[in-house]
Design a protein that fits this description.
With 538 residues, this protein is an alpha/beta fold. The chain contains 20 helices and 18 strands.
C-alpha cells in the first residue's frame, strides 16, 4: 500500500523564539537547526531576516543542512508599495533562503482594524508577494501562512477562502491555515479544513496551530485527517502564550499509531525517531530549563510506573500499561521506588542499575522495608535514582567507605567588604578522613550561600579521590518543606553534572536542618561518582 507523504515544518527558531524568557543566540540557532536536520524534518524556519540582529546574522551565514530546507519568514509587501520598493520585503528576498514563508491576514476584521486597508488591497498584496518570491530565484518555494484563518473563516468564509485561493493561484507551494489564537476546537478544524480542501488540493495545504485550549496536537491531527499535508510546529511545543503544536508529540504519533502510520510517511524514519527524546532534551539544555517530566513520549515520567500492581504487570507484559515501546522514541521504562512500591518495583530498579540479585534474597525484603521506612521520614527516591542505588548497594555490602566526614561547620556573616559595601558571605569548613589515612584533611571554602560553600569545601581536597570529582558540578538544587512549624522537616534534591561525559544524577537528603539535608545529598553525589568510577580503596 502506497502511503501519502507528510511534510514537517519546524518553526522553533522563529515562532518558538516568541516564548517568554527565550532568547536564542546565533550559536543556539545553529545547534538546534542541526538537531532538527538530523531528526528528519523537511523545513527549518530560521527566523525573520532583517527584523533583528540575531536573525540577520544567522541568515548571513546559514547552517549547512543535509535534508531540511532552510526557510525565511516575513510579511507580505506593505499596501501602497510595490514589492521592489518595500525594504522589509526585499530583505527577506535577499536572505538567500531556498524557501520563504510569508504571513498574510485571512480575517477581514484584522484587515480592516490591524492593517487599515481594503480586502482587495490585502488580496493584491498576497498575489504580488507570492509572485515576487517565485521570480526572485529559480526553484525557490513560496509559502503563505494565512493568519487567523479559522477565526476568519467562521466570520467570513468567502473572504478567508479567497485569501488562501489567491496564494495558491499565484503559485504558492504551501498555503498554511493558521489557528493563530489557538481557540479553535478539533471538530471545527476538521470540518473547515475539509471545506478548504475542496477548493485547494491537500497536497498544497498546511496547518499551524497554537495551544491555548490544550488542543494544538489534536487540532493538527484533525487537520491531517481532513486533508492537509504540511504540519507546522515546534520542538517541545515552544511558542508564545501557551505554545505551538508540539512536534515532539506529533511525530511519534504519526509514526507509531496505526491510523496514521498505515496511511502516511514522513522524513522521520523509525531509526531517526530514536533520537527524538535526545532532541527534546538538547533544546531544554540550551534553554537551561528542566525537561517537562510528564511530556508525552519523551518525558522522564512518560513510561514511569509507581504502583506495585502496575509494576508487576509491566514486568510480565509491558503492553499492559504502555501504549508504545519507550525504546522506539529513545526513552526508557522506569519502575519507581516509593512507599507504594512492591517487590516488583524494587527488582526492576535493581535490574536497571545492574545489580544482580535473586528475588528470594532476604536482602530484597530488607531494602523494600528500608525504602518505605525512609519515605515515611521524608525521603523520596522516585527522582533520586543515584541515592537509591547507593542505598541498595550499601544493604548488599557493595559500597566501599571511601572517606568519612568527621565534622563540618558553616558560617554566614553580613559585613562590610573592602570598599565599604554591606555584603553577606558564607564560609564552610569540612574535616574529612580518607580511607586508610591516619590524619584528617581540613578544607575551607567560601561561597554565595551555605550550600555552595559546603560544596566547595567538600570538593576542595579529597586526597587521592580528587581526580574523580574534578569534572562534576552541582547544576540544580531544590528544597521542599515537608512539615510545618518550627521543627519542619526539609527535603533537598540535588542534580549533579559530570562535564566530562554529560551524565547527570540526582541525590536526596532529609533533615530538620536544611544545611544538614543539603550536605547529605552532596555526600551521596560524590560517593555515587566514586562508585561509578570504580575508585580504589586503600
Amino acid at each position: 500500500m502506497t502511503r501519502t507523504r507528510l511534510y514537517l515544518f519546524d518553526t522553533t527558531l522563529r515562532d518558538g523564539a516568541q516564548t517568554q524568557g527565550v532568547d536564542f543566540s546565533v550559536a543556539d540557532k545553529g545547534r538546534i537547526a542541526a538537531v532538527l536536520d538530523q531528526l528528519g524534518v523537511d523545513y527549518v524556519e530560521g527566523g525573520y531576516p532583517g527584523a533583528n540582529a540575531t536573525d540577520t546574522e544567522f541568515f548571513s551565514n546559514p547552517p549547512k543542512l543535509e535534508r531540511a530546507t532552510f526557510t525565511a519568514f516575513g510579511m507580505t509587501k506593505r499596501a501602497g508599495r510595490s514589492a521592489s520598493n518595500d525594504p522589509g520585503f526585499q530583505a527577506i528576498l535577499q536572505s538567500g533562503a531556498p524557501a520563504i514563508c510569508l504571513v498574510a491576514k485571512a480575517w477581514d476584521y484584522h484587515v480592516r482594524v490591524a492593517l487599515g486597508i481594503t480586502n482587495e488591497e490585502n488580496l493584491q498584496g498576497v498575489v504580488e508577494s507570492v509572485r515576487a518570491v517565485r521570480a526572485s530565484a529559480s526553484n525557490r518555494e513560496s509559502m503563505i501562512d494565512c493568519e487567523h484563518f479559522f477565526d476568519g473563516y467562521k466570520a467570513n468564509p468567502a473572504y478567508a477562502l479567497s485569501v488562501a485561493r489567491s496564494a495558491y493561484d499565484s503559485g504558492a507551494r504551501w498555503v498554511v491555515l493558521c489557528d493563530t489564537n489557538g481557540g479553535t476546537l478539533p471538530h471545527e478544524i476538521e470540518a473547515i479544513v475539509a471545506d478548504v480542501a475542496k477548493a485547494i488540493p491537500g497536497s498544497h495545504l498546511g496547518i499551524h496551530t497554537h495551544n491555548d485550549t490544550e488542543n494544538a496536537v489534536a487540532n493538527t491531527l484533525a487537520a491531517v485527517r481532513a486533508g492537509v499535508r504540511q504540519i507546522q510546529g515546534t520542538l517541545n511545543g515552544l511558542g508564545e502564550r501557551c505554545g505551538n503544536a508540539n512536534l515532539t508529540s506529533i511525530i511519534p504519533t504519526l509514526l507509531l499509531k496505526s491510523e496514521f502510520a498505515n496511511r502516511f510517511e514522513t522524513g522521520v524514519t523509525s531509526e531517526r525517531l530514536l533520537a527524538i527524546t535526545r532532541a527534546s532534551r538538547i533544546l531544554d539544555e540550551i534553554l537551561n530549563r528542566a525537561p517537562a517530566r510528564q511530556a508525552p513520549y519523551v518525558g522522564e515520567s512518560a513510561f514511569a510506573t509507581k504502583a506495585g500492581i502496575h509494576a508487576s504487570a509491566i514486568l510480565k507484559e509491558p503492553e499492559t500499561y504502555e501504549h508504545v515501546k519507550p525504546e522506539s522514541v529513545g526513552n526508557r521504562r522506569r519502575v519507581l521506588v516509593s512507599n507504594q512500591a512492591g517487590r516488583s518495583n524494587i527488582m526492576a530498579e535493581l535490574e536497571r542499575v545492574g545489580i544482580a540479585v535473586d528475588k528470594s534474597d532476604p536482602r530484597v525484603a530488607t531494602l523494600l522495608d528500608e525504602v518505605k521506612l525512609r519515605e515515611g521520614a521524608g525521603y523520596s527516591y522516585e527522582a533520586a535514582d543515584a541515592s537509591f542505588e547507593l542505598l541498595a548497594r550499601r544493604i548488599l555490602g557493595e559500597v566501599p567507605r571511601y572517606f568519612s566526614v568527621d565534622s563540618f561547620r558553616v558560617m554566614v556573616e553580613k559585613r562590610h567588604n573592602a570598599v565599604g559595601e554591606l555584603v553577606t558571605v558564607s564560609e564552610a569548613t569540612v574535616k574529612v578522613f580518607i580511607a586508610g589515612a591516619s590524619e584528617p584533611l581540613w578544607s575551607v571554602a567560601g561561597g554565595n550561600g551555605p550550600v555552595n560553600a559546603l560544596d566547595g569545601a567538600l570538593r576542595k581536597d579529597l586526597g587521592r579521590y580528587q581526580k574523580h570529582i574534578e569534572t562534576i558540578e552541582l547544576v540544580d538544587y531544590k528544597v521542599r518543606i515537608l512539615t510545618g512549624g518550627t521543627e519542619a522537616v526539609t527535603r533537598v534534591l540535588i542534580e549533579t553534572l559530570d562535564t566530562s561525559t554529560g551524565d547527570r544524577w540526582f541525590t536526596v537528603g532529609v533533615s530538620p536542618n536544611i544545611v544538614d539535608a543539603s550536605f547529605e545529598a552532596l555526600l551521596d553525589s560524590i560517593n555515587y561518582k566514586l562508585l561509578r568510577d570504580g575508585a580504589e580503596v586503600a
